[in-house]
Each structure stands twice: as C-alpha cells, then as structure tokens.
Amino acid sequence: MSRQPKVVAWTSTEEYLNVSECLYSADITERKRGVAIVKAWRARSRLPVAIEATASLVEMTIVGEERKSVNITQLRHLYAMALIRFVNTIVDLEQRGTYAQSIVSLAGRIGMPAWFVELRHAGTHESLPNLAALQSACQQALGWLNDYYWNRQTRTLPPDTQIHVREALSKYLDVQKTMPVSKRTRKSSKKPTPGQLAMEAASDELRQFLGNLHPDAVRLCLVPVLLEPGFLVPKEKKLRSAFPECKIPQALESQWLGLLLLLAECLGETLFFEELLSAIVAILTPDSVEHGIFESLDSTLSTSHAATLVAWIRWILEAHYHHASEQLEDQNEAAAAAFELINIDGLLERCLRNPSYFSRSVLKVFCEFDTELKRDLKPFIDYMGKALAALASLDTNGKETASKTARKIEPMSERAMEQEERLMAERLEKYFGPAAIGNACLDDAQDDAKDEFLMEVDEISSDNQPPPSSPLSATNAAVAQSTDSARNVSRWDYMPRSSWSTCPIGTVGLGDIPTLEWPAWTDDVCPELVS
C-alpha cells in the first residue's frame, strides 16, 4: 500500500527556508514579511505548532519595537500571553496517556528550560513579570525554537533541489569536456558540428532549469554545489592555485568560464557573484568564537583548496566588476564603482572579526582594487601578519622555545610593589609637574608625614592661610603649597592612605551592597519619556 503524501502549506523547500530566514532576520521589514507569509499559510492548512509559536513571538517583538499606541502595561500583557501560549502549545504535544503529567516534567522531556514554565506560572497565577524579563524570555524562546525546530528541520529537508542542480551542472560540464575551447561556439556562417549542437542543447536545457529556480535557491542550493570538491575547486591538485600568488590556472579558467558566464546571464550578474563571494568568504573565515582567534581551519580544507577559493575571489573582481568601471579615468573612482555592485562591507567585517591566514589573504585581494581601502586596512593586515608569524615561530620551535620566550607571571613581593609604586610616582611628577608628587609616596617613612600634612592643607585651604611647617624637606614643602592648584586639575590623583578604608569585595562605601536592579516603577514609565 502506497504511503499517503503529506500536504503542507508551503509550495517548495526554498519557500520554507526563506520564511525561516525572514522570521529571524534583524530587519523588521523582513520579519513582518515572514509573519505575513505564515498567516497566509495558516489560511491554507494546519501548521506545526512551532511555526505558529515562532510567528506569534516574532509579532510580539515587532509590536515591542514599534510601540504604536501601546503602553507598558499593555505590552506586558501581550508578551505574557504570547509566552503562555508558547509553553502550552509546545508542551501539550507531549501530553499522552490516561493521566495528565506536570508541565515541568513534560518541558524537561523536550529540553525546554524550566524557567519558561515558571514564567508561564507567574504570568497566569501571580503578579505579572516586568517588561525586561518578558522581553528576555521572548528572545530566548525564539532562540530555543530556532535550535530545536527550525535548524533540525532544515537539516532533515530532502535535498532534492541540490540533487537536480548537481545533475544539471555535471551534465553541462560533461558535454563541454568533449569540445575544444575554440569550437564551443559556432559562427553563424558555418554549419554546426554535432558537438556544437550538443553544446547548444545543453546550454538551452540549463537555461530552462535555472529559469525555474527560486531566487533563494541560488544561495541555498546552487552556490553550495559549486563550492563542493570537484567543481570550482578541482580534485586534482595540479589544477589548483597556490599561496601567495592565488591565480586561477588557465586550464581551470577555460573549464569554468563558459558556465559561469551562463549562470551570471540567467540569474543576474550581481546576484550570482555576490552570493558566490559571500559563500567563499564564509568558508575561508569560520567563526572565531568556535575555532579561536588565529586558529587554523579544520583538516578538510587544505592550503591548495583555500588558495583556489581566494583565487576565485580575485577572478570575480577582475573579470566581472572591474570591467564595469574601466571607462573611468581615476583609479579610485573606478574601484569604488566596481564595489558598488556588491556589498563588501559585510565581507570585510567577517574577515576582520575572524583573523587567520586565509582571511588576511582575502583582505589583500580586496585592497588590490581600491587604494583608499588598502590604506585603511593596512594596519590590520600588518598586525595579522605579525601575529601569524609569531604563532608560526612558536609552532616551529616547539614547546621548549615557547616556554622560554613566554612571559612568566610571578606573584609580586612587597619590595617589588614598593618599587613599582615609586616608579608610578616618578611618572606622575614627570607628566603633571612637581605638584603631582605631593600625592605620591616615595617610601614608607614619608607616607605618614605626607598624609598628615595633606590633611592639614585640606583643613586650612578654605581660609587661604599659608600651610604650616611640616617635617618634609624644603622641596616637599614647596610642592605642598601647590597642592590646592593641583587638586583642581582634571586628572587621576594618588589618594593618601589616610583616606583608604577596608571593605569586603563586592561592596561599596562602608560595606553596603550595591543595588543593580531597576526600581519597579520604571516598568510603568511612559514610552515617550524613555525614548
């Protein structure tokens, strides 16, 4: 018996993935679009509760950001209701059997944080939580839905589109291999050869296939296939590029030139090459939060593989963006016009946030097309080069050399602390004049005398009387006379020890514990006053 197909509200996998990106976009317009599409889906058929909950929570974040004719109390009620429905609808799916189980146990079974259940209980039976707690819970609930539903669904979606893309590209390349480069296009005056007819038929078939693709399929399906081993990066290492030149070999360029031009023609040059550049940079610059600063990539990406990807970046900029501004005489204007076609700000930011040898190479390629950009990025590129060279030397010399060159942190002795304090006092006098030393201690023998003297100065300074005689030297006495003027200088001062007082760590003043919470009345402040 054949299995009954399941009817869903979305028309394609690409539409489903597009709505997922819209709902979690930073742009409020995109989020509104995602919520509107979910409402259209709801009119078609029944939706999974995770999609319903995501759309409701996203809609609440939109209302919270815009705050049109909604006061704080109304916002708290709206947030609370959205979170209550989120917990109830998700947890009820696990409610099975004759006897009902507690919400806490069901939430723990599906991995939902227990404090979501506590917040639901407070919003239902107790006083309404404050707005900050509700907004934080809404954002964390969206994150939980993204991890436990959207990401898992994306990984399990049938990769039918990618399979079709891979088959279409492979078929075109197989036909192209049978034709010499000079005979792939025919002149109108000559009779076409069988190979040329096969090439034209393959091109027409690929054009028809690309015309039926969803725009989001370029990023989600086509570009990932192109970046698989065996496509833009050949499996034969002799056809790959190498550092530091990063030039596309002639054989590889001739193999892909016709296909890339065809893809750009059918999909739009800006759209196609911008998505391709973004995907290449993403591969070369993994998130440093996960891999660490200046950490190398995993072993699946070899040096020749990365060099070939960097070479494709240079090829795209040279062949398809620089030519659009060749008519401009000024080189800077030409480069600026070339970069107007793509958004390089995001690419540069990703390279700078995730420094590595590969990201440094990408930055250098971008700088080749813009002298002004090269001037701005030169300090960062130089610093990355020095850091990478230092790490390379440590790896080469081994752990023994590293232990010798590394600074060894040792606890400071009392004498070392006194020497450092004396050094700071000398620097204070050097940069702020002789008056500064009135607040610095030179040794323990003078500390008490100086503190007593400064206290006497504070007591009589309001009467404009000359300071009394002190046991300090003549130099220190002259310095003390200028203490009042020195105190008026807007800078850090070395406070006398007499003003020091001990208190437990984490307290202020006389041992009071600071209150870092906002008072409850701030939840009811008018939005106009806050903004």
UniProtKB/TrEMBL annotation:
Cited Pfam families:
Las1
| Sample GO molecular function, one term | endonuclease activity
**What species is this protein from?**
Coemansia asiatica
Q: Which PANTHER family match?
A: RIBOSOMAL BIOGENESIS PROTEIN LAS1L (PTHR15002)
Q: What is the protein's given name? A: rRNA-processing protein las1
- List the GO terms this entry assigns under cellular component, sorted alphabetically: Las1 complex; preribosome, large subunit precursor
Upper lineage is: Eukaryota, Fungi, Fungi incertae sedis, Zoopagomycota, Kickxellomycotina
* GO BP annotations listed: maturation of 5.8S rRNA; maturation of LSU-rRNA
